[in-house]
Structures are given as structure tokens and as C-alpha cells.
Amino acid sequence: MPAHPLQGVGRRLAARRRARNLTQSDLAQSAQVSYATVRSIERGSRMPSDDVLDALAAALAVEPGWLATGADHTDSRIHLAMPALSAAVADYDVPADGPVRPLVQLYSAVADAVSWRLGSQYVRLAAEMPALLQELARALQAARGRERIEVAGLLVAAYRAADAAAYKSGHRDLSARLVDLMRWAAAQAESDLLAATTAYVRTEVFFGARAHQSGLRALEAALEAAPRPVDAPTTAARGALHMRAAVIAGRAADADAAAQHMADARRLADDVAEGVYLGTAFGPASVRIHEVSTAVSMGASHIHQALEIAQVWAPPRDMPAERRSAFYIEVGRAQLWAGRRTDSFESLRVARRIAPQHTRAHPWVREDIGTLRRLQRAGDDDLTRFAERVGAV
Fold it and tell me: What is the CATH number of domain 1-71?
């Protein structure tokens, strides 16, 4: 007879917890739930609510759907949330009546959303962002003076967080609309730094359209308008634009522009510590990751540069999960092109352990694992299971 659903959730939860060398108490503390809750779920006497399931999954770096069923249902959960997100976007300037929390609580809510984005928690973003965007729209409508500028700044970060869920799940039209609203909110916030941040995110529109030359022109225009690097935030904003420009120049096959922008990013990174500035990671480690990305963007003749970096360096564990995962995805592609199939698969597995939702959403992962399966020896169950988990089959 098949196992009872309660026992299945508990068994998967316990197995994943032990694999990460966590006690039940450790897991409870990390997920911010009670010890009794973890124990009862593992014993099969309690089914977790959606909120508890999401919290446990985030603490264990797995997808909530896997804990619930043993399969990945991230895609369906995100897609089901998209109509509500579209509605929140549609009435951005005429929000329905409703409550608005004090500004300090709105700051906290947006900080949570930024944390989910950096941690690639797209399911949680898709579920939470519609209500938060509508609340912030109401707050902006009611705010005056300095408070209106602050709320507009929060909206920029919130639109960016919502865009992560839309873009990574393939809802490109909605993503483009969210980027437009980021630009609108940045203007309301009267901030050159937020305008630079928005230009960084806008590049994904050009990536999606494969309009790489246009994207490079847009970034170079943003660099001309960006504030001078006089402190850490302004230095990071300019450096991030140079990183992004290097990658898109690589995809445009403009080697000179890619090299120049990467050199500028490297120089600026020497002046700031690695960190997250206005929602964007920047610093020496981020530049190193973008060096790999630029090399891969330039194509097979440049992959030796990516492989040389990966041979001696790996992203520090305190970097945002999405950025670390992206590094291993890029390295995996370089290794595949170099004929190092085993190494490529291992890099993709590392990427998935770091950020499962990001890895599942990344088109290169599905493409590369598909290539590996075509080249595999018969009966490689590990590759097949991985392909199933990232939606490649």
C-alpha cells in the first residue's frame, strides 16, 4: 500500500534535515517554527500548513513541492499566482481600498521580499508580492513630502522582487511591465541611484529579446547618467552597471567593450567590500562571477577563461544564493563545451543544492542537462532524476 501523505512529508523532511546535519531543534530555529511542530510533522501526526511548509523548505534549501509530494511543483504554484500579480500591476495607480501598515513595517516587509529574491524563493515571492504591491500603492497614494519619496523607493525594490518571480518563470510580458513600473517608481523617488538600479534590471528585457547591442547602448547611457562614485553605494551602483554591460557586450560579440567594462567593474570593486547595495550584490567576488559569465557569453573560444577561474576560486558562502548558483550554472556550461561532462553535471548539482528554484527556472540548466542526457551512457538514473527535477523532461 502507498505511504500515507503525512508519513511521506515527515520522512522527506527528516531525510533532508539529516542530510544537512541538523537536529530537529536546529531546523525549528532556522525555520522559525516550534520544535514540537517539526517533531510532529516528522512523526507523521501533523500536516504542515503552506506557510510552515514554505518556511521549512527555505531553511532546508529545497522546493516546497518536493517536501509535500516528493516531486517539484514550483512551476504550477508560481503560474497560479501570476493573475493576482498581474492585477496588482494593472491597478498600480488606482489601488483598491485597504489597510496600510506604518512605514517602519513596510520597510520590514520589503526587506523580507528582497531577502526572498536574493535567496531565489520565487514561490514565496509569487504568493506574497501581489498584496504587498497593492498596499504600497495605497501608501504612495496617501503619502506626502518626504514620506512619499520613501514609499516610492520601497516600491522600486518591491517591483524588482515581483519581477524576479515573473521573469524566472517565463512571464516575460509581465516582467517587462514590472520593469517599466520600477522606472516609474524610481522617478517618484527622485533618486539617481535607484534609476541606476532600474537600468541594471531593465537589461533582462534585452537579454530576453536577444537585443544585445540595444541593451549595451541602454547600459552605457545609464552609466553616463549615474552619479559619480564618491561612496560605497554610488561606487557599487556604477560598478554593477559595468558588470552587466560586460556580459551583454560579450553576447553582442563586442570583445573590446566587454573587456573595457569588466576592467572598469574590477577597478571599482577594489574600493568597496562585497555586499548588497540597493538590492544588487557588488564587490570583488561579484566581479569574479561576472568574469566567468562574460567569458561564457563570448562563446566556446573563451571558455578557458571561465575554467581557469573555476579551478582556483569559488564564491563565498555568504553571497546571495542566486548569484552563487548562477556561477555554477555558467561553469557547468563551460565544462560541457570543454567535453568535461562529469564535471558539468556536478556543477549543475551544486547549483541546485544552493538555489533549487533558481536552477529549475534557468533555461541553460534545462538545455545543458538535456545535452548531457543525449550524450549519456544508457541507464544513468542520476541524470534522469535531475532532468525531471529541473523540468527538462
Answer: 1.10.260.40
